[in-house]
Design goal:
single chain, alpha/beta, Rossmann fold, 5-stranded mixed sheet, 6 helices, 15% strand, globular
Length: 176
């Protein structure tokens, strides 16, 4: 299901030729960055990608690659490994999502990395997103916008994260 906002988003388009002659891409790698200069790879899915893209452009963060998973199941492990393999092995690898940590694709994606399903990738991404919650949304548009801006800033800039006891939203270790 696509959010209605994506139906009118000016950057969420495909050329007619691509629709007629192309094929479905399970993973969309970032063609706008120089792989040698990348210091962080942000994995995401859905409409958060467009917020991350805007955040990267606004912050002129050319050292951040945005890799989109367009399909979660069956998990496109080989395609994802090819995308991650283009970047130096020393890059920060993070998963960003707008849903709370106990919702969305985070746990499924993390399991794929922990189970070794992504060939040639021996580490799991860190999590950036909302803290675990019983509700998928904060209930306030202002709070949602603030949280979304925080997620984008953490994902793009790698801003410092408070100690785990005080984390509202931030990078959690990939393993427990």
């Amino acid at each position: 299901m696509t959010p209605k906002s994506m139906l009118r988003h000016p950057r969420c388009v495909s050329p007619l030729q691509s629709l007629a002659e192309g094929r479905f891409e399970e993973v969309l790698d970032d063609g706008a960055v120089d792989p040698a200069r990348v210091r962080r790879v942000v994995l995401s899915t859905g409409k958060l990608y467009y917020d991350l893209l805007k955040g990267r452009e606004d912050g002129r963060a050319d050292g951040v690659a945005l890799v989109r998973l367009e399909q979660l199941y069956p998990f496109p492990a080989a395609a994802l490994a090819r995308a991650i393999g283009r970047y130096p092995s020393s890059v920060d690898l993070v998963w960003a999502q707008e849903e709370p940590q106990n919702m969305g694709a985070w746990r499924f994606v993390r399991e794929q990395f922990l189970d070794g399903a992504v060939p040639g990738v021996s580490r799991s991404p860190s999590y950036i997103g909302r803290e675990p919650s019983a509700s998928p949304a904060p209930g306030s548009h202002k709070a949602h916008v603030r949280e979304q801006e925080e997620i984008v800033a953490l994902a793009i800039k790698g801003a410092a994260v408070p100690e785990p006891e005080t984390v509202v939203r931030g990078a959690a270790p990939a393993t427990s």
